[in-house]
Design a protein that fits this description.
2 copies of one chain form a homodimer.
Chain A lengths: L1 E6 L8 H13 L3 E7 L1 H6 L8 E5 L11 H7 L4 H11 L4 E4 L3 H12 L9 E3 L1 E3 L6 E5 L9 H17 L7 E5 L10 H12 L4 E6 L11 E3 L2 H27 L2 H9 L1 H10 L8 E4 L5 E3 L6 H16 L2 H8 L6
Parallel strand pairs in A: 1-2, 1-4, 2-3, 4-12, 7-10, 8-9, 8-10
Antiparallel strand pairs in A: 5-11, 6-7, 11-12
């Protein structure tokens, strides 16, 4: 049995979507057990039925979505659902953690409690981004777990994201691009230039060179390697631009009669685009380089998105991604 | 007379759009003279008529749009049109330079030839970005002129962009945001935290705090201050996402009959969105902090976009933005 800990109190619709997502996942997979961390009473209120592979781990506390000073919160709120789940992942009582709670808090809990593998210098947050190519996803690594950038960290990001892409997304030979301000090898500062050398020197990696942020969702590569600062800036810029454009489009279409008529005819197309740009169908962002998989589902996840994040956790455990990362990085400087 | 130097050989449709843009601008403004830098024969081929305030400065050389090693090209190709225009701006023979040529080369020419003001530590490239609010623009400063980040540079970017927004865009009290990975004051590394302190300590600036890259085109602020590396990543991510999304939209609409019908009805809306997301209506990106205004028009500029960049150059000279930047930064550490 694969034991998955679910932070029932994280996310905009907690605990309802977590509970429903758990029930969906239990139906789908017979080899998992789910542990719901959170306030028992609230969980029971929205649980339509019990399940023999579903257990509640009562926690008196929970983080709000806009938790300030996440590291301090993680250290001081010992009975918060997210903290308890991470503690149990650290001891091995559960195999993975899924949470739709505050990203900063989850990164802090993963880093401070689950703790990084000794083979890895810094953990990295790796979201799976949709692209405009149907069925094609790009992993961004790191999207903001480590804001300090060093060439060696970027090289490790390339290695661990490559393992993840192979084992969980089933990409045979993942193409890797290095986020930079231009495509030529000489672009960027020392960080990017040195990382370029380290990554290209590793024959086990399929490195295609530098990639600009304008290609974030064009589907050209399977992995975009970045330091957490630039990765975070690029990811949020894409998310914000997409959301701004769709908002504008909706507003303009609804603002004119012809636009409204056009929108009715094109509604199938809009729905299809929305569906295929929806990252939650492949799960959430995984925090890599720590002792157990910790997965961040989107804050606005519905039950299906929670189910997909649980599926992703199961797959990551089944494929022993953590073990494979340890092995691959044992000789750090090869 | 305001003397504007136009690199006739820069841009995807050179020299035609430059020549036509110059003629449009001369009709519109009676107080400018335009100097066309480029190969005389080619310029004359696409010049329908002469104009008494239009002069050709013959240059035997020109940079391609994909110039490699821009700094070296600027140093060695002394008779390239862009280099010659920048030289004349340095000596004061002309008041400003407009080019739709390679961005990297123009930044190098502006920095190495026109040279930075002694009052400014580093030049900054400041594009005017469209936002989803009609008629509202946001200046990004720096979008990639200086990739090394220091708090003092970011503070100066805030000051010079503020002057530019007031004098050229007519924004009375420009709201300034600092690009960061979160909105709290404590976010980011030392660079962002120290820059935050410097900018907030200056009472002459309307600083609203940190802003995330998801707000690049939301129209919340008039100015986004960034180091050139993060600014470049954010800008290109937005451009790439917008272009990817519109490409996907077009492809999906054209892929189904209902979509095609919808697109016909909504064509006015799509055109209106395209128009209002088009930055070229307010001109190009200005390189600030050097001895004369140097303006980068988009490579794909048509004659109207070139005209708008010339208008922007004229306004920048008329308002003496360079002089005002010198004065404002004379006591650097206030």
């Amino acid at each position: 049995m694969i034991k998955i800990g679910l932070d029932a109190m994280g996310g905009d619709f907690a605990p309802e979507t977590a509970v429903q997502g758990a029930l969906l996942a239990l139906e789908e997979f017979s080899d998992i057990e789910i542990y719901l961390y959170g306030q028992e009473e609230k969980i029971l209120e929205c649980m339509p039925k019990s399940h023999d592979r579903l257990k509640i781990v009562h926690c008196s506390d929970a983080f709000p979505m806009d938790v300030k000073e996440p590291a301090q919160a993680v250290r001081s709120q010992k009975d918060a659902s997210m903290v308890r789940a991470c503690q149990d992942a650290k001891t091995g009582d559960i195999d993975a953690v899924v949470s739709a709670g505050a990203t900063g808090a989850l990164i802090a809990a993963g880093t401070l409690i689950v703790r990084r593998l000794k083979e890895v210098d810094r953990p990295a947050l790796a979201p799976v981004m949709p692209t405009i190519k149907k069925g094609k996803y790009t992993i961004l690594c790191d999207a903001g777990a480590t804001s300090e950038g060093k060439p060696q960290y970027l090289y490790q990001n390339a290695k661990i994201a490559s393992i993840y892409a192979k084992e969980v997304l089933g990409v045979k030979s993942p193409k890797i691009g290095l986020l930079n301000i231009g495509t030529e090898e000489s672009k960027g500062g020392e960080l990017q230039q040195e990382a370029f050398k380290l990554i290209s020197a590793d024959a086990s990696l399929d490195f295609v060179g530098n990639i600009e942020s304008k290609s974030m969702i064009s589907g050209e590569v399977d992995i975009i390697v970045a330091d957490g600062y630039a990765g975070n800036i690029a990811m949020k810029a894409v998310e914000g631009a997409a959301s701004s454009i769709f908002k504008l489009l909706k507003q303009e279409l609804m603002g004119s009669l012809l636009g409204k008529i056009g929108a009715v005819f094109a509604s199938g197309v809009f729905k299809s685009i929305k569906g295929h740009m929806d990252a939650s169908s492949v799960g959430g962002a995984i925090l890599l380089g720590i002792n157990a998989p910790v997965i961040k589902a989107h804050g606005s996840s519905d039950s299906r998105a929670m189910m997909n994040a649980i599926r992703q956790a199961r797959e990551t455990v089944k494929q022993d991604v953590t073990g494979k990362i340890k092995t691959a990085l044992q000789s750090k400087n090869t």
